[in-house]
Structures are given as C-alpha cells and as structure tokens.
Design goal:
Strand content: 5-15%
Distance between the termini: 69 Å
Number of helices: 25
Radius of gyration: 27 Å
Number of strands: 19
Length: 616
C-alpha cells in the first residue's frame, strides 16, 4: 500500500471499510503484558483452533489487541459486535464460549463480571463499573485494532487528522489549534504543548527535531508502554503533525529497552507508515518530508527528564543541564527541539479531528482533556484508567477502582510517581488536575497512582521512594546527590528506632534545599514524598521517634510478635512454619514465642487462623 495523496488515503479507507462486515463476530483477546503473563496467547490459540474445528473460520475473526486496561481480570476477551466482556479466561472455557455465544447467541454467565455492589452480572464492557465512569479517548481503540495492522488503524479513522493538516492547514493553524485546545504535556511538567510548539517553530535554525519521550520509569506506571504497544500509529500520527507544525523533518522515539513489545510495535508501525508513504519524502503529495528513528534507552529514571534524554540521544551520559536556554531553542545537538511524551502525542490526532473547542470542553479550567492513570497498590481493580481531568480521587479509587481489598481503610494515595506526594484520606474528594495536585504537595507526573491502606507505614513509604530516587540520581549536582543520601540515612534511622526529634527539622530543611537548588526536575521534586508525609502524617514520624513504635506495624525494628495464650488453640501451624524455631508448645496447648529468637518475618502472624499471634 502506497498512499500519495489525501484523496487516495480516503479511497483506501473506504476500500478497507467496504471489505469489513461490521456484523461479523470478532473476538478481541487482550494482548497486554498483564494478560500475556496469564497465558492470553494460549487462550487466543484455543479460540482459533476451536473456530476451525467448528468450521467457522470464515465466519468469525480473532484479533490480538493491546491492553484493555482491566489488568486485574485477565485474560480478557471482548466479543464484538455485542461487546460482551469475558474475564479470567482459560483455554478450557473456549469451547463453551464458541458453542454458546458464537453459535447459540447466549452468554456464558460464569465468565461474566459480577458487580458486587449491584449484586448482578453484567454482560457488556460498558456496564462494568471499572469502565463505566471512564472516558477512554486514548485507550478506547486498543480493543478495536490489531496494533500490527496499519489497515486496522486507517479503518477507525487513523491518519485522517494528518490528511486534514496536510490537505489545507498552514503550520501556524496547527499550532494555534493545539494552543486553543489547552492541552498540557502529559509527561510530568504540565507545560502547555501549543506554547512549546510555538517556541520551537519560532526558534532560529534550519534543522529542528520532534522527540517522543517513552522513557517511562516510574515504579508501577505503564501508561505510555500500553499506548505504544496497543496503538502505536496514533503516536506516529501525532508526531508527524507536530513535525509539520514546527517545521521539523527529523524525529526520534526514545523507548526504554525494557519495553520489548513496545519497541517491536513502534518499529513495525514506523516501517508500515514508511511503506505507505506516511513517513518519508513528500507525505501525501504535500511536499512535506519527515522521518523517524527509534532509540533504545538504558533504563535510567533521570533520562525521563528532557535535557538528560537529549544528552542520551547524543550518545552522552544521561545527565540533565540547567535550562537557562530552553530546549525549544537549543535542544538535541543544540538545535530547536520539541519533546513530548507518548500520551501527549497520542492526543494530537483527536484534537485535530474534533477541534480545539471540543477538546477544551473536557476537563477543568486549567487542565483540559483526559488523563491516563495506572491504578495500582492496595486497590481491588488494578489497571489502566482514563478519566476526564477534574474527576475526584474518590471516584477514581472507589467507583472505578472498587475500593480497598479485605474491607480495610483507605489511608493515602501517591500520585506522580516516586517524586509525587502522598495525599491523605481527608482529601479524598480532591478533583484531580495539574494545579490541585500541586496545591496539596503532590503532582500529576506521568500518571502513576499508588493506593495505600491502613497497613501502610508512611515513614517507610517516604524512605522507600527517597532510596529509589537516590539510586536513580545521576549525581551531577550536589543538592540532589548528597541531599538524597542524607535524607535516606535519616529516614532509615527513624524506621529503625534511632530517630531524634531534631531530625524532623533537619529533613524538612534538606527538602527545601533540594527543591530550590537542584539542577533538574528529579531533584526539585524528590522531596515531595517526605514533605507530604511530614505534613499529613507527622504523628507517625513522632510515634517512631518518641515511642519507638510503628503504628502500621511495618518497620521490623520497632515491632514485636507475641502469642495470646487465651486465643491460641495449639494447632501447631505457626510452630511448623516458623523458620527460626522461635515457637514451642504441645498440641492443643497454648504455644510460646521466644522473642529473642524471633526474626520478625511475620509468617506466624499470617498463618494464624485464631487471632492468637499479636503484632505490637
């Protein structure tokens, strides 16, 4: 397929659509990493084999797609055209699905999702509470296309935004459309995308670059990876439009090497787009030339920062520089460069196709559009969610996320990755947008959302993230290099019972220095976990220091295990499981735990069925 004009693209789209029977059953099997780990490819193969065995090969399609988002329920399959949602599939379920749903047009109830709150089964994806309140502008097409097929992408309207741009819009028209949409960068900083493009366009230089930041390094975050894996052409289309707008003929996609499926799919998409004439010279006969290369990142968290990423692209150590001169003026190889992350680029075709007014009507006054979050931690429904800006934390965590497992209490949520802040339960009705998150001491970041329950020690959480950032700091500037090291030492002392009250003032001062004096965004935002937990959970710090107690029972140096003789039935299970032989006792007699031998592994506490083992 070679497309040489806008009209030819539309003709090819019509031809593809004419060849599709929208009433023909199609089984879309989620091929995201979560489902891959749960043998979704074996499930997919079982569908193919069963369909062949029934002689239905020409009457039913099977499609392997990108991530559907509801990772908790994998493997997942959607049956089109009804959009029946089956979850937790195994290869043994497949013959029944084919027989009942495909042949007899009935649902297999045991494989449907149960809405516990409503007490009923739900048949379609749109009825599942996890999806019901989402607005899946970016993720919604993942289940409708095979990411390896450019024809699938064109069939759903792909590259129509590019055709609109090259078919009659001037570059500044495109910049103005993006500015008027109000979209802000989804990579963390939240800088207005249109203004960044305008600065790059107006910068002096014959050679300019567009760059896609796919160096997603936040623990628990996988939004950008899923977009690249599930719908890579949407990112390419956004980048080509951006390149036209700023006057660039060259671009890079910087993907971390730990994302093999994302690398495979984006490379294939580039190859297909190049073969179709959507990358390269004279795109759609417009005279516009643009091409892309993929660069594999080494997995350094700091390379998510724009100047460090560009240094890495140049073959240098991934270290940031001060931004006295913006990268829009002097970026990659000192040339004007516009860097946006995966999700930002994927939004561009939507804005062009639907218009700035449509886009700016979604979200809040200062934060437009939707945002994709990876919802993880102590929550029932883990996965990827996409919601309009301004939805409250309560709606995301309880209505979409299904609340906290085992009836435990919600304690806090950290947004924005390791440099984000911990937001307490008292702020559960906070609308989520860039400015409101910053006001309470956190940030949007790239979209990580880690939920914590009552068993979480907030001092230990701060220690964990500070140690992560310390290990990921490039070490170029003193405040970040030495400050994070010292903060980590102080937090370790507190969690191990060596803390002093004056440490709280010291760690607060260190946080202020890092925030004000660090060279790049990593150091400037690194104190957020400490500052937010000190602000909202200071009583936990004081309990560790004054009382040598960890209220959540997490910090092993500050807890002890004992056996309540009144509750102990002498079942012997704790005795058998104890790896330190610290528990003794006769069968059907109360057991005794020797605290001198106890290594505080907690196995006895976990296995006891009679609430006899106490953690204090």
């Amino acid at each position: 397929m070679k497309v040489t004009s806008v009209n030819e693209l539309e003709a090819i789209r019509s031809e593809i659509l004419a060849g599709k029977d929208l009433d023909k059953p199609c089984i879309a099997v989620c091929g995201g990493p979560g489902c891959l780990a749960n043998q979704c490819l074996e499930v997919r193969d079982a569908f193919v084999n069963e369909i062949a065995a029934k002689g239905l090969t020409d009457k039913v399609d099977v499609r392997t797609t990108g991530c559907h988002g509801f990772c908790e329920c994998g493997p997942i399959a959607l049956i089109y055209p009804q959009e029946i949602f089956y979850q937790g599939l195994s290869i043994d379920d497949i013959p029944e699905i084919i027989e009942e749903t495909i042949i007899n047009n009935k649902t297999v109830d045991r494989l449907l999702y149960t809405d516990d709150k409503a007490g009923q089964l739900v048949e379609t994806e749109g009825e599942v509470p996890f999806y019901k309140k989402q607005m899946r502008l970016i993720l919604g097409n993942n289940s409708k296309i095979d990411p390896h097929s450019i024809e699938d992408y064109i069939a759903i309207g792909g590259y129509s935004a590019l055709a609109k741009v090259l078919g009659g819009m001037q570059p500044m028209d495109v910049v103005d459309e993006i500015k008027n949409s109000g979209i802000r960068g989804r990579g963390g900083g939240g800088f207005p995308t249109g203004r960044k493009w305008e600065s790059t366009r107006n910068a002096q230089g014959d050679i300019k670059y567009v760059i896609c930041n796919a160096d997603e390094g936040d623990p628990g975050a996988f939004m950008d990876r899923s977009i690249l894996e599930g719908n890579p052409h949407s990112v390419l289309e956004g980048m080509i439009i951006g390149a036209y707008a700023i006057g660039s003929n060259e671009g890079y996609v910087y993907v971390r090497n730990e994302y093999p499926l994302a690398l495979k799919n984006i490379n294939l998409a580039i190859k297909q787009a190049r073969e179709a004439g959507l990358l390269g010279d004279n795109i759609l006969g417009s005279g516009f030339n643009f091409d892309l290369k993929v660069n594999r990142g080494g997995g350094a968290f700091v390379c998510g920062e724009s100047t460090a990423l560009m240094a890495s692209l140049e073959g240098k150590p991934g270290e940031p520089r001060a931004k006295y001169i913006h990268t829009s003026d002097k970026g990659l190889w000192d040339r004007p460069s516009s860097l946006n992350n995966v999700e930002t680029w994927a939004n561009i075709p939507l804005i062009i196709n639907n218009g700035a007014d449509w886009y700016s009507a979604i979200g809040t006054e200062s934060s437009k559009g939707t945002k994709v979050f990876s919802l993880v931690g102590k929550i029932n429904n883990t996965g990827l969610v996409e919601v309009p800006m301004g939805m409250t934390l309560r709606e995301i965590i309880f209505d979409i996320g299904g609340g906290i497992p085992d009836g435990k209490a919600f304690k806090a949520v950290q947004t924005g990755g390791p440099s984000g802040g911990c937001i307490p339960e008292s702020l559960i009705d906070l609308p989520v947008d860039y400015d409101r998150l910053t006001e309470v001491g956190s940030m949007m970041g790239s979209g990580g959302m880690i939920v914590m329950d009552e068993d979480t020690c907030m001092v230990d959480v701060a220690r964990y993230f500070i140690n992560f950032l310390m290990e990921e700091s490039c070490g170029k500037c003193v405040p970040c290099r030495e400050g994070l090291l010292r903060m980590g030492e102080i937090l370790t002392d507190i969690t191990e019972g060596r803390g002093r009250m004056e440490d709280l003032d010291l760690i607060q001062d260190l946080s202020e220095v890092l925030k004000d004096a660090s060279l790049c965004g990593l150091g400037q935002t690194a104190p957020n976990p400490v500052m937010s937990t000190l602000k909202y959970f200071r009583d936990e710090y004081e309990a560790h220091i004054k009382d040598h107690k960890c209220p959540a029972g997490v910090c092993t140096e500050l807890i002890t295990y004992n056996i309540d003789a009144g509750n102990c039935t002498g079942c012997g299970l704790c005795l058998k499981k104890c790896p330190a032989e610290a528990i003794t006792g006769e069968t059907k007699q109360p057991h005794v735990l020797d605290t001198g031998k106890c290594i505080k592994c907690g196995i006895c506490y976990d296995v006891c069925k009679f609430d006899a083992v106490r953690k204090e």
